[in-house]
Amino acid sequence: MAFNIEISDTVRFTVRFTTKDGAGVEKPASFDLIAHRLDVDEYKDALAQETSVTFSDFLCGVVTGWDGVRDGNGAPVDFSLDALRRLCKVPGLASLMFKSYGVEVSVKEKN
């Protein structure tokens, strides 16, 4: 199969994780992020600035939307940078989203 060198400048990917409820039971959760796809030079520059740019700042620069983020009542939460920053305050979630972005914007070997 041929490869078209012009690929989408956006990428949609699922962030999967678990949280524990008040009884200590693990609950699976996931949501989709939609983000700008940085080219290799832009991505390397962003990684080089990692010491001065937080995961939250990086994500706010590339994420443009989401699907599957809900409030405490189960209603969909509209995407905004403020809402994304609130999501990034959940311990460990900003680094997981950052890692997922890095994996999902890269090509993968096909077996």
Report a brief summary of the structure:
The protein has four helices and three strands; from the N terminus they run ββααβαα. The chain is an alpha+beta fold.
Description:
With 111 residues, this protein is an alpha+beta fold. It is 33% helix and 24% strand. The protein has helices at residues 40-48, 55-62, 81-88, 93-104; strands spanning 10-20, 26-36, 63-67. A three-stranded antiparallel beta sheet has the order 1-2-3. The two termini are 13 Å apart. The mean pLDDT is 89.
State the main characteristics.
111 residues; 3 strands; globular
Estimate the mean pLDDT confidence: 89
Helix-strand pattern, N to C? EEHHEHH
Task: Label the structural class.
Answer: alpha+beta
Biggest pleated sheet: 3 strands, antiparallel
Alpha-carbon Rg, integer: 15 Å
Strand order of the main beta sheet, please? 1-2-3
Helix content: 25-40%
Low-confidence stretches: none
What count of structural domains? 1
**Morphology:** globular
Q: What share of residues are in beta strands?
A: 15-25%
Number of strands: 3
How many helices? The count is 4
Alpha carbon gap, first and last residue: 13 Å
SSE blueprint:
Elements: E1 10-20, E2 26-36, H1 40-48, H2 55-62, E3 63-67, H3 81-88, H4 93-104
Antiparallel strand pairs: 1-2, 2-3
Helix pairs in contact: 2-3, 2-4
